[in-house]
């Protein structure tokens, strides 16, 4: 608990509904870890109240905000400046202050790139399955990494075409995605996620044999059907929790200049999500 003599720095997340966001757990743990007088709150803000919330950010001096669905595009008109990444993705997931100006950033890109950077030899060809916000962050990240051939594939072709137009990547028809399953395949759909999609994979059965790397942005469960199939076929796998942790690390760095420790931070998240270990 911060000392009452030290002003508490206010941070939080907005979205609607917020559900069981892991962000308060992780960022509050981070403040405790570094002995910083910060508190991170969860603010469920309805779609029509974004303007009011952005006024509150300025009036109350809120120092940092995580922005999640459905507000990632709506907040863009209320910031003073935007980073190149946020412009490229067309979405802001982080608000922070620099020199008196309120900035919008997209740390989903840094979060997506982080585990690929750690892996080292990223394949030269990639297929991103999905056409929503996560797919846009993935394509922006792959572009930054210099992946030579990037394809997108989405159930609704018109949404994939938007990515083709915005990022200059290739497009694969939904029915043909198995033919392009070499190199890296990224699942940017909810297929495989706990609940009604849990038993499903973004790739047809038997189509993951030629994969070098399978990257699932879904992080609950830890091992999705897609990752299990790909691992069994000999591919390297990257679970979605790595991206979630990476985007939070980038936010915490922007707000505090401190680097959330990977081993302890991931253990905290894994304990909260999957009941693993003791989270120490
Ligand atoms: P979104 O904007 O709602 O997009 C969802 C995409 O999935 C759409 O392209 C949609 O296709 C496709 N889709 C949904 N249900 C499908 C189905 N039954 N069959 C085929 N395609 C389907 O969501 P998002 O924000 O991009 O998130 C996508 C996934 O990434 C979610 O599982 C989310 O949890 C995960 N995610 C993870 C992280 C992380 O940090 N690890 C960060 C962001 C998102 P249509 O266009 O045809 O509807």
Describe the structure.
This protein has helices at 23-34, 50-60, 84-89, 107-119, 133-145, 157-167, 225-232, 241-256, 262-274; strands at 9-15, 38-44, 64-67, 81-82, 94-98, 101-105, 125-129, 149-153, 170-171, 183-187, 211-216, 236-238. The protein is an alpha/beta fold. The strands form two sheets. It has a six-stranded mixed sheet with strand order 2-1-3-5-6-4. Strands 9-8-7-10-11-12 form a six-stranded parallel sheet, sandwiched between helices. The protein binds NADP nicotinamide-adenine-dinucleotide phosphate. The site of NADP nicotinamide-adenine-dinucleotide phosphate has 24 residues, from helix 4, helix 5 and helix 8.
* Global morphology: globular
Residues in helix, %: 25-40%
What portion of residues belong to β-strands? 15-25%
List segments where confidence is low: pLDDT < 50 over at least 5 consecutive residues: none
Main sheet makeup? 6 strands, mixed
**Could you state the oligomeric state of the chains shown?**
single chain
Structural class: alpha/beta
Query: What ligands does this structure carry?
Result: NADP nicotinamide-adenine-dinucleotide phosphate
Strand order of the largest sheet: 2-1-3-5-6-4
